[in-house]
Amino acid sequence: MEKDFKTYLNEIFADNIKKIVISNLSNKDCKYKKIDVKQTENVFFVSKYTQTQVFNENLNEDELKEFLYNAQCDFKQFNFFSESTEYCLKLSKKNKLFFNKLKNKSSLSQQASNNRKKNYILNEFDDIPPLVDIGVFTKEGKIVASMQNKFKQINRFLEIIDDNIKDKNLSEINIIDFGCGKSYLTFIIYYYFKFIKNINPHIIGLDLKEDVIKHCNQTAQKYGYDGLKFEVGNINGYNPPFTPDMVVTLHACDTATDFALANAVNWGAKMIFSVPCCQHELNNQIKTDNFSIITRYGIVKERIAALYTDIMRCNLLASVGYKVDLMEFVDLAHSPKNLLIRASKANIAVSVKKERLQEVEHLKTEFNLQPTLYKLLKNRLSQIEK
C-alpha cells in the first residue's frame, strides 16, 4: 500500500528536522515563489517569498504539518533536513508522490557552527535569485562546490557594509554603484537591504557598456527589484537623481576610482566602499633619489606604487571629513586585489585633517607624485591649509 503525504510527514518529523525548503512552483496564481522553514527554540520560523517581499510567521509542529499538506496545491517539491539526513518529497505532473532519503554530506549542525564562526549574512538555501543566476547556488539553493570562495567574498563584503550601518536607524537608502559591470554584487546589495535589513533601497548602477546595462535592467525587472536601475554613463561628471547616502566602486580601473571617490565626496555621501583596481598612475610617476632601492625592481615598484595610491586616497578622504579604514576584502590567496577602502562621514578634527594632508604632501614631494584624487579635491584641500 502506497503511503500518502501525511504519513510521510509523520515519519520525517520523527527525525529532528532543522530546515525545510519548499520549491518547484506549480500554481502560477500563487503569490509566493518559494518558502523555507527553519527550526528555532520552540517553533518553526516560516519565510514566504514573493518577487519583492518576504512574509514571516511562527508555527508549531502540528500547524506546520498542516501548512505543508496544504502547500501541495502550489508546490511540487519539499526538502527536509535533519542534522544527518535529507528527505525529499516530490509530486509529478500527475500528482504521483515520490519519496527519497539520503545522508547529508556535511551535517547541518556542523554547517551552522561554521556559519556562526564566519558570521555569514547569506546562507545556503536562502532564496537569492542572483546567486542562482551567477552559478553560486544551484536551483535548489545549494552552494556549488567550486564557488565556495566567491560565496565567502560576497558575504565578506556584506559583513563590511553591515558593520557600517548597524548603529544607523535607516528606513531607506540611496546608493550609487560606479562601474557596476554585470552587477551581480549590485543585485546582492539590493537583496541585502530589501530582504534582510528591511530597508528600502534606491540603487543606480552605472557603466559604459550599453549591452551590459540593458541586460542588467531586464534582470532587475525579472527579479521584481523595483528600486534598482542601471544607466549608461561615465563616472566623471555624472549627476544622480538623488543625494547618495552610499557610493560603491568595485574594481574601477586606475584613476576611475579617483573620479568615483571625488564625486562621492562632492555629493556628501555618508558612506564609501571602494575596491581599487589597476593602479598604474603612480607607477609611471614614482621617482626618488633618497629611496631608489624601491624603484629598482619592477615588481616591487609596481606594488609599492599601488600601496602609495591607496594610502594617499585614504589620507585625502580623511582630510575632507571621513573616518577611513583600509582593510582586507578577501584573503590574498583568493584575489590579489584584496584591499577595500571604507570611509564614513564623520566629525574629524581640523588638526587631524591637516596632519593627514601634510603626510600626503611629504609623500608627493619625496617620490615626485601627482595623484588624480589630490587634483580633483584641490579646492577642498586648499581650505584646510588656511
Protein architecture, described:
- The protein is α/β, with parallel strands linked by helices.
- The protein has two domains: 5-118, no CATH class; 149-385, Vaccinia Virus protein VP39 (Rossmann fold).
- The chain is 38% helix and 25% strand.
- The protein has helices at 5-12, 61-70, 108-118, 129-133, 148-165, 184-196, 210-223, 256-267, 293-296, 298-319, 350-367, 372-376, 378-385, and strands spanning 19-25, 34-39, 44-49, 54-59, 75-81, 85-91, 97-103, 172-178, 200-207, 228-232, 246-253, 271-277, 322-328, 339-345.
- Helix 10 (298-319) packs antiparallel against helix 11.
- The radius of gyration is 25 Å and the shape is elongated.
Keywords:
single chain, alpha/beta, Rossmann fold, 2 domains, seven-stranded antiparallel β-sheet, seven-stranded mixed β-sheet, 38% helix, elongated
